[in-house]
Amino acid sequence: MELRNKATRIRLFSFNTPQMRAFHLSWLAFHVCFFGWFGIAPLMAVVREDLSLTQSQIGSTIIASVAITIVVRLLIGVLCDKIGPRLAYSGLLVLGSIPVMGIAFANSFETFLLARLAIGAIGASFVITQYHTTVMFAPNVVGTANATTAGWGNLGGGTTQILMPLIFSAILMLGVNEFLGWRLAMVVPGVVLFFTGIAYYFLTQDCPDGNFKDLRERGELPPAVKERGMRGSFLLAAKDVRVWALFIVYAACFGVELTINNIAALYFFDHFELDLKTAGIIAGLFGLMNLFARTLGGYFSDLFARWHGLKGRVRFLFFALLLEGIFLIVFSQMTVLSLAIVALITFSLFTQMAEGATFGLVPFMNKKALGAVAGIVGAGGNAGAVAAGFLFRTEGMTYQTALLYLGLAVVVCAFAAFAVRFSAETQAAEDEAFKAALAEREAAPA
Length: 446
Description:
Keywords: Membrane, Nitrate assimilation, Transmembrane, Transmembrane helix
Number of strands: 0
Order of helices and strands: HHHHHHHHHHHHHHHHHH
Family: Belongs to the major facilitator superfamily. Nitrate/nitrite porter (TC 2.A.1.8) family.
Protein name: MFS transporter
Strand content: under 5%
CATH superfamily: MFS general substrate transporter like domains
GO biological process, one term: nitrate assimilation
Helix content: over 70%
GO molecular function: nitrate transmembrane transporter activity
Oligomer: single chain
Number of domains: 1
């Protein structure tokens, strides 16, 4: 997909252009989605007691919360190619608010499991976030734009760990008991999701020059791939082995992040015998690194592209993922709280840099099926979280051992990055596009 008037700069404090409105609304929407998606995670110690859940059952709910997202991410990417990111995002946010508030009515393991399964659909918001910034920004900054919007969205995983225990505590101060308190607390992210969806519809547009529908009517955008309808877009992406290599890579970084978001508070609560609020604050440090860490991954991806082209992006991705695995192994072996916190932060830094570097490559894979590529790669993150979830639901395995095995798996997966290769013609074309974007940026007023 070739679109005109993509932004060659990220004007962080500007809301006047459609590019920057899409930038800010997309990261905010993704941030809010994390608020709903993982809102229950820091309250699981209370939920465990209320519903009498076993370790195996908690593990099953963790898997459910990320499993459905695999399917929805695959579908939402193709849907973006067809109707555009504005309508796709607005619909997902409004519909996603329903199960977030509905989890308050869960009264057994089975109903709680179904609620977490339904809530997991809003995790597909990541694909739309990446799609929207990709069509709005030029090659010289698209890696940084993608990484920043995704990173500030992922930051919701950290703020959720901190805010939800505070919301829960505030509700308890009104005289409500704990078992009703966690249910009322989940209404807050549901309401926020709903109103964010309304705002997204009215404040954004699909592309720099308008919405998909209008551009197609004016002949400025080709129609959606018609080979067997929406399936054609998916098949174009699915036939590319490089897409599946990035699927594995993203499973090893974002999949790990989702897993840590689900188990970190409970891990610190049990392993270091902390109270609920302290465990939530420490667990939140992992997600708070998204404030800058994922942006760094995208920035270095763009920087390595300036020096070494697309090969540079691949090499940086490998090193970020390798270091993630090494520091996850270190974190798993920590028995002193202060050292565990340092290891957690370092491991988080490289996890999120690897995520940013992954989507620094996605815009260059297949421009005719951009949404489908983003959907498949994004689904890889949830597939990784599902696989990791089986480690944490095993009754005979401690969380510490599971984290060790997970770190070893990440080290192995890092080598999948080298399967992402580009032809000489593609590299030359992208180098020219990169130089052209830089020239346009220099010519434009600051």
